[in-house]
């Protein structure tokens, strides 16, 4: 874990930097659409008769070149929306040289040369493995947890891999009710089964029971992590049409990215491509026709253009191997610490570090982390699995590149061990630490589990989650939610694996709760003097209570007392 997020005043204009998801809604009630990974490649092919055209033109008198012929009727529109002539494009005509003695010299091109080698030509065999994903979503109503919201439909992209499986984005099938797949050039939609959903990495795995779906299709093969400036081709079914779309770009950055849907930080690729709704879940191919990533999100900002993000093959293979190893998705482990950079020389000296020692200082340790009894605050992490950690928290990645050391942690699987070398009181210690997934006090996702709630005397109790905050305060909940809830969301750590933040979400007005109608989203600290650990423990205490009154102690020194 690195530096904490900062809160501030709500921006006045929507020009702030936001990263958005990217599947295409087809429901009228969900008009918001987000961006995807794609880029147009400037590719052309010379016409076969270009030399003949040049030869014919050369016979004309150089001093009296024939006038250009125009087609009859209204000039047609190009795909870009501007008006263009109906005469042939200049790419098919001879090369024009500067004036010589008052005439234009026309010379046939010796060899047609493309501005960019078409990567799409190599991807053609793999296009048949790209499918269109149709999903019907039914999202829970977190503000009224006893009911669900109106269902809506979306379309996105996916692709076939080995083992009769299909990969797409997790947000493309989130809260799914029904998922259907359609192959390229087919008019049949096949019912799909969701095998696993990786929320953190934003990947989902599907399959189809109908054998007809797999006929005549070769699975996509994965390639290595691309280098900077490597060409990539994104294939999918974005908005603007129903058929398959092929767009191209290059890799412009490789680093640890913030995965918006998963609320995590994992390795990601940035490509210089405009992203369109519907490309979500589509593969990104290299020039050999191998898949090097999955399109999943983009950057929206008034000062930024053509910034799209791709999930790279190391993250994809981690998801696939995790499923094959455990029969289910177990997640990406974390070290469970918050750390501080050690770039200040006085700080390094105070921590007892030598001139040749580098590392990061541990600020806090997750109480639920397995290493909480081994590591201590103010320990300096010198290396992870033998790889030295720099003072800024980075490790060597490839030639000329460095990356956050959390990348090394994300390469591990849940339950794996890692050798961590730390500096404590000027002594070097080594620990074999077992890695586990992150247990947040306020979870970022609730998987497919409907929200839990408990009602007594008209008081609606529920556990706080990020979807609940978003339901109550909108997408800008980090600005609009109560400060105490945000403080716990950003900084609080769970003391146990089953700890929850329980609140009174609302009061259903009745005679028994007169005077308490204004209580909204207030944390419950104790019941009849006993601390509230989670929603289940609160319900058990209330059900087993034999006292005459029920007393709830809330934050801000508020109290609720009702008779049985």
Automatic annotation (TrEMBL):
Composition bias of kind Basic and acidic residues appears in 76-98
Q: Which residues form the PDZ domain?
A: 344-435
Question: Which residue windows does the record flag with biased composition (Low complexity)?
Answer: 51-63
Q: GO biological process: what's one of them? A: proteolysis
**Which ranges carry the Protease Do-like PDZ domain?**
442-560
Q: What keywords sit in the KW lines? A: Hydrolase, Protease, Serine protease
Q: Cross-referenced InterPro entries, in alphabetical order? A: DEGP_PDZ, DEGP_PDZ_sf, PDZ, PDZ_sf, Peptidase_S1_PA, Peptidase_S1_PA_chymotrypsin, Peptidase_S1C
Q: Per UniProt, what is one GO molecular function of this protein?
A: serine-type endopeptidase activity
Q: Where is the composition biased (Basic residues)?
A: 1-12
Annotated spans, Disordered: 1-26, 51-98
Q: List the biased-composition ranges (Polar residues).
A: 15-26
Q: What family is this protein classified in?
A: Belongs to the peptidase S1C family.
Q: Cross-referenced PANTHER family, in alphabetical order?
A: PROTEASE DO-LIKE 9, PTHR45980
* Protein name, entry field: Protease Do-like PDZ domain-containing protein
